[in-house]
Design brief:
This protein is an alpha/beta fold. A 7-stranded mixed beta sheet has the order 3-2-1-4-5-7-6, with helices on both faces. The chain has helices spanning about 1-15, 15-30, 35, 40-50, 55-65, 75-85, 90-110, 130-135, 150-155, 170-175, 195-210, 230-235, 245-250; strands at about 115-120, 140-145, 165, 185-190, 210-220, 260-265, 275-280. Helix 1 crosses helix 12 (about 230-235). The chain has 2 domains: about 1-85, no CATH class; about 90-225 and about 240-280, Vaccinia Virus protein VP39 (Rossmann fold, 3-Layer(aba) Sandwich).
Length: about 280
């Protein structure tokens, strides 16, 4: 696996995007090694896209939890999954969950019964780690996602309390058909990894203007080319939009600077994920 990751990373850097994509779609998909690699349930799930889109919440749950002891999982599949579960990007995803839970708690310390919005929330697993959610110190936590299966899982985990599920698409937000107001904290954990530059900047403006004065927007994006990028694209058909610090800062282009009380950029401890934090004046 080390040699495979290293080789794919080398090829990805060596070839232009068209040549690399052709290699992934033609050479990798017909190579006998693919059947071996796809014994890993995490890798196979990403490739097959059972919910119809990349990076679904079930896939992310493979990174949050250890599924290595699932019944019927063969030795090779289990060992490949264990390897992937311990990769830097996987550790970044788990750290992201912990960071978001801490932000939920910090918002409850800053504001009495705050209103919070999670955009493209997935299974909202960070809420399961939040003491503010557990102790009912949030006024409302809106879980917004286009996937009804995600919202059904959230409703199962949080049948009562401050969590409210809303089914809707980011497209509806961009078209002005869906909006929220007077939020104290708005965040999006994995969405921006799939958004083109113009769309991401426009959405950032819309989310920022959902904040009340003193409110905070936090968005995350994987940095340019984590070590597993070649494997993800070749064997998982999982293609992200990577951004560096200057590209993340450019997401504020449609926001009037006079409305910004604070702009912060920081990376996680693994150096894989960049966070953009905006506070409204």
């Amino acid at each position: 696996m080390e040699s495979l990751h290293r080789g794919l990373r080398t090829l990805r850097r060596k070839w232009d995007r068209e040549e690399w994509r052709r290699f992934c779609l033609e050479a990798v998909r017909t190579h006998p090694l693919r059947e071996v690699i796809h014994q890993c349930p995490f890798t196979r799930h990403a490739f097959e896209r059972p919910r119809g889109y990349a990076g679904d919440a079930e896939l992310i749950d493979y990174l949050y939890n250890d599924h290595a002891h699932v019944d019927g999982l063969e030795y090779q599949g289990r060992e490949i999954y264990r390897y992937m579960h311990d990769q830097p990007s996987a550790r970044s995803v788990r750290e992201r969950r912990e960071l978001l839970a801490a932000e939920l708690d910090a918002t409850a310390e800053r504001v009495h019964l705050p209103r919070i919005l999670s955009v493209a929330c997935g299974h909202l697993r960070e809420a399961e780690l939040s003491t503010a959610v557990r102790d009912h110190r949030l006024g409302e936590l809106i879980a917004f996602d286009q996937d009804p299966l995600c919202l059904a899982e959230i409703a199962r985990v949080f049948p009562t309390g401050p969590v409210r599920t809303v089914c809707g698409s980011v497209r509806s937000m961009l078209l002005g058909k869906t909006s929220f107001r007077d939020m104290d904290f708005v965040y999006s954990a994995g969405l921006y990894d799939y958004l083109a530059e113009g769309t991401a900047a426009r959405l950032t403006r819309l989310l920022f203007h959902m904040l009340r004065s003193g409110g905070k927007l936090l968005v995350a994006n994987f940095a340019v080319f984590p070590p597993e990028t070649g494997y993800m694209e070749a064997f998982m058909d999982w293609w992200l939009v990577y951004r560096d610090e200057s590209q993340m800062r450019a997401l504020t282009a449609e926001i009037d600077p006079s409305e910004l009380a604070e702009v912060k950029l920081f990376r996680d401890s693994v150096d894989n994920v960049i966070y953009l934090s905006l506070t409204r004046r």
